[in-house]
Specification:
CATH topology of the largest domain: Rossmann fold
Number of helices: 11
CATH superfamily of the largest domain: Vaccinia Virus protein VP39
Low-confidence stretches: 2-18
Oligomer: single chain
Structural class: alpha/beta
């Protein structure tokens, strides 16, 4: 890494024990971290001993992280989630010392020159200085990867460190559809080391549409956690997606969104039940496990579930015997609605 001439050293102690983060250190709509115990309990109870676990709508990887003893297939349509899942679960070897050294250098720079991020996002989600720093770091990661100084997983680990660091200080309510007009922009961008637990050479990480991937893979247990309402994840996390992809597209509107046409999910539309039915028909597994919230018609229209329970049961029963388990759960929301008697349901289908 070549530091810019105007960079200045910052006094940061990188030997502090708190300079690490885990897979569950990130805010994310629909995150199942607090439900992982519930999900894992019933999968272990109903599915018995198994070797492979596939998570086709993995998001940040919270559920997959509960099955590190299995051969994992982890997929998400967002590239920003894909790079994080490569960091946490990828099969490629990496150098922890190398990652640590890059993080130390990145945390000790202070920039005076604008770049793509600061020109488009300064004083919105982040301060101008943090945008300058993040833009420089992301460009440097790309350059070092292109030059062969870091491998693909090391690149993903460094991008993950940047994404989590940005999310920690973002001037938002937990997503990037809007920023706080009078929010606090004084927080400093500080990258940390990810706490990665081992490297399973059998793991496979994908960045594909789940319906397309389903017919290409097989696993003992296939876990599904599709979007259940009309809120598109590519809208909520467009900025992190932009940083992860680093194609520097033109952005528009107050929120600074780029074109997201190819990232829209059918599960957020009136076609959700048809997409779900096609997915279930394509899966090669001993057990299909579905997480689905019971919002139904409880919330505002955008929050209502797209697939009725009777359709879920009908579709799953075409593949085998279905059991349903429930737990009360208040979902992470940035809205003002206060939904009572909210449940997370786990549909477990033993395939015939």
């Amino acid at each position: 890494m070549v530091l810019p001439v105007e960079s200045q050293k910052l006094n940061l102690d990188l030997n502090d024990d708190v300079m690490y983060f885990s897979v569950n250190s990130r805010r994310y709509l629909g995150n199942k971290y607090k439900l992982t115990g519930f999900i894992k309990h019933y999968i272990d109870l109903e599915c018995g001993v198994f070797q492979s676990f596939a998570d086709l709508f993995a998001g940040t990887g919270a559920v997959a992280a509960g099955f590190l003893d299995k051969h994992l297939v982890v997929n998400d349509i967002l590239y920003s989630n894909y790079v994080c899942n490569q960091a946490w679960f990828g099969a490629e070897n990496y150098s922890g010392d190398k990652i640590s050294e890059y993080i130390k250098q990145y945390n000790n720079i202070n920039l005076l020159e604008d770049n793509y991020l600061s020109k488009n996002y300064a004083e919105t989600y982040f301060s101008r200085q943090n945008c300058r720093k993040a833009g420089f770091i992301r460009e440097d990661i790309e350059n070092n990867y292109t030059a062969g100084k870091i491998n693909h997983r090391e690149k993903c680990i460094l991008i993950t460190s940047l994404i989590y660091a940005l999310d920690k200080i973002a001037n938002t309510c937990g997503h990037y559809e809007a920023y706080r007009k009078n929010g606090n922009l004084d927080k400093k961008l500080l990258l940390k080391m990810p706490l990665i637990t081992g490297t399973n050479m059998a793991n496979k990480i994908y960045n594909k549409d789940a319906n397309e991937l389903a017919s290409e893979i097989a696993a003992d247990v296939v876990y599904l956690d599709p979007p259940y309402n009309s809120r598109q994840y590519c809208d909520a996390y467009h900025l992190l997606e932009n940083i992860a992809c680093w194609k520097k597209p033109e952005v528009y509107g107050v929120a600074g969104k780029m074109d997201r046409t190819l990232l829209k999910s059918e599960y957020c539309t009136v076609n959700a039940r048809y997409a779900f039915e096609n997915l279930i028909k394509s899966i090669d597994a001993k057990y299909i496990v579905l997480s689905y919230n019971n919002m139904a018609q409880k919330g505002v229209r955008r929050s209502n579930a797209k697939i009725p329970d009777e359709e879920i049961i009908r579709i799953l029963q075409e593949r085998g015997k279905v059991k349903v388990f429930k737990q009360e759960y208040k979902t992470f929301s940035t809205g003002k609605s206060n939904i009572e008697a909210n449940e997370e349901r786990l549909f477990i289908c033993k395939c015939s």
